[in-house]
Amino acid sequence: MSVALTKSPPPISTRQDKLRVMVVDDSVVIRGMISRWIGAEPDMEVSASLRTGLDAVNQIERIKPDVAVLDIEMPELDGISALPQLLAKKRDLVIIMASTLTRRNAEISFKALSLGASDYIPKPESTREASAAETFHHDLIQKIRHLGARARRRASPAASPALAPAPDRIREVLPHPVAAPAPQLQLARRSFSMLAPRVLLIGSSTGGPQALMALVADIGPVIDRFPVLITQHMPPTFTTILAEHLARASRRPAHEAVDGEMVKPGRIYLAPGGRHMRVVRHGVDAAIALDDGPPVNFCKPAVDPLFNSAIDVWQGSIMSVILTGMGSDGMRGGKEIVAAGGSVIAQDEATSVVWGMPGAAANAGICAAVLPLNQIAPKLVRLFSGDRS
């Protein structure tokens, strides 16, 4: 069809291979809008459009969807209550939680991730706001496509541990990682910088909250002596909750960065949702600089602005980590860090929810290491202690 020719080739093309998506939302307007978007894509189709979580639980075995877009607030059975029941009936189901931007819904979305949801997406306050609706449209379709395709690739019995709820998935997969594809093993590696790192920068997106909490829990010796700055693709309110989770996981101070504040060792600074986080020189020190500029790599906050700005402050004494996420954000900034004399570590494909951002960095040949998530923290502790191997 001519429409399909105007799009990038989808990962799934034949009708029998289309991703089957179940839309569950009590709003007829939202259900209709999402269903139209899915129906317009050549590699996916709406398998059901349902009003309540109870409908979804009762019908999932008949519908057999690959992906469910699940609203949080619904009558009869809400999304957070339906989630474990859906996974009990279809263990490999990809569930994307959809919610409005309230603190309560952000907290529920984080709980959903711990119960096995694959991701979350914020719904616009009003579908009449064109820019918000377009962002929702773009992000939702990309999440369905990438998460659905990944689940299918990992549907073999050998990969079944990767389909457990999120905390167990991290603990089960990481000690015995799924073998990485052969091309990944052949990627070029650079030597780690011989310059002592003075800051740790981290970028992440889809799957990032779980990965970040696992990582910061094990890098206490690094946080105690050096500043840690994180950009996670996430909207406002959600970053507030994430900062609180990072503080608990790391047992160290963590907060959304504030414009103009000084960057100090012993703290974790998180880019606030909806604003890019950069750093600037302030005498011999560094300060946070937030801005409300346009999205970078379709994201706001984006990783590249942080990576690029850090070079002016710390030159080559930068250690950067690119974790799981869609797209290629962080790759260009990582190139600049390496050119300045710093180092980049990427999460490997087997332990990434989506190997987009870390894969782009790895394929660009800028990484000194591509590691499973559970090996990144020990490596960072050694590197910041003086080991350059």
Automatic annotation (TrEMBL):
- Entry comment on modification after translation: Phosphorylated by CheA. Phosphorylation of the N-terminal regulatory domain activates the methylesterase activity.
- Family to which the UniProt record says this protein belongs: Belongs to the CheB family.
In the UniProt entry, what is the domain comment? Contains a C-terminal catalytic domain, and an N-terminal region which modulates catalytic activity.
Q: Name one GO biological process term.
A: chemotaxis
Q: Which gene encodes it?
A: cheB
Q: What is its main location?
A: cytoplasm
- Alphabetized PROSITE patterns for the sequence: CHEB (PS50122), RESPONSE_REGULATORY (PS50110)
- Which residues does UniProt mark as catalytic? 205, 233, 329
Specify the Response regulatory domain's residue ranges: 20-138
What protein name applies here? Protein-glutamate methylesterase/protein-glutamine glutaminase
Reactions mediated catalytically: [protein]-L-glutamate 5-O-methyl ester + H2O = L-glutamyl-[protein] + methanol + H(+); L-glutaminyl-[protein] + H2O = L-glutamyl-[protein] + NH4(+)
The cross-references to SMART domains, in alphabetical order and at most eight, read: REC
User: InterPro entries annotated for this entry?
Assistant: CheB-like, CheB_C, CheY-like_superfamily, Sig_transdc_resp-reg_Me-estase, Sig_transdc_resp-reg_receiver
Instruction: Tell me the classification of the organism that encodes this protein.
Output: Bacteria, Pseudomonadati, Pseudomonadota, Alphaproteobacteria, Hyphomicrobiales
What are this entry's molecular-function GO terms?
phosphorelay response regulator activity; protein-glutamate methylesterase activity; protein-glutamine glutaminase activity
Role according to the record: Involved in chemotaxis. Part of a chemotaxis signal transduction system that modulates chemotaxis in response to various stimuli. Catalyzes the demethylation of specific methylglutamate residues introduced into the chemoreceptors (methyl-accepting chemotaxis proteins or MCP) by CheR. Also mediates the irreversible deamidation of specific glutamine residues to glutamic acid.
